[in-house]
Task: structure prediction
Amino acid sequence: MSKLISVVVSVYNEELVLREFYQETGAVLNTLPEEWDYELLFVNDGSRDKSLQILRELAEQDPKVKVVNFSRNFGHEAAMIAGIDHANGDGIVCMDADLQHPPECIPQIIAKFEEGYEVISMARTRNKSAGLIKNITSAGFYALINFLSDVKFQPNASDFFAMNRAAADVLRNNYREKVRFLRGYVQSVGFEKTVLEYEARPRFAGESKYSIKSLFKFSINTILCFSDLPLKLGIYSGGAVAFFGMIMMLYTIWTWFHYGTPSGYATIVVLISFMFAMLFVIVGIIGEYIAILFAEMKDRPIYIVKDTKNLEEKR
Result:
């Protein structure tokens, strides 16, 4: 009985790399064992360049190329979950179109499926093109989220991952948050898991679609999605302020006993400034959680599909 592997690819303004990606990935997929067939499922996330035109041309030439076209830009996370929703494969591989995720890893993923693994995380061992600062901040992010969250994540895991149909059905049916961290969900759903390591390639063309601002926002949302520890900061900071207040009280009594009535102006200003700073931080954290709750309560769609190409009914 033949099996199907679905390669899900998020596309946003990737006109310079799409044909090369199709050629390289197609060449790898054509070397798979005979029992494995494949589909290349591209999700156009509201590209403003000629990406959609190129995808439609590829789909005309090759029926194994499937295209999901969004009505506008919904973001990389929405594009990946849309690809998972529309994939027909017994196994699904999610990867980016910029060729930083090497297509030659796909046969290794297939081999892991054959061994019985159901969720496969791909961990970067090296990313030369990211630069020192980005590599350090990435390592720091995983250290922080693993400290704050009950779920422990594979360090340097990326948006390059794979899962079988059963794990994909969990994401399709249950993990439908509007603010999401998909690679985290993949690692937290359970099933038989393993990790493959790879060295990230330099981008074939174009530039990263994540700015410093968007990466910071993404990191904050991820922490809030997987940990309620920031909400408890008020308890911890209240205890800390009470402790320092007790020390200041003892110090004031000691100063009064030895030197007479102390001048407390500077001390009062420092303490008030510190306490108000803590208060505003806690209010800001609560505000971020409320913003996430508000997005979920509105229950707007994660994505809107404008049209598709070569997509048949799900098996």
In short: The chain has a mean pLDDT of 78. The chain is about 50% helix and 20% strand.
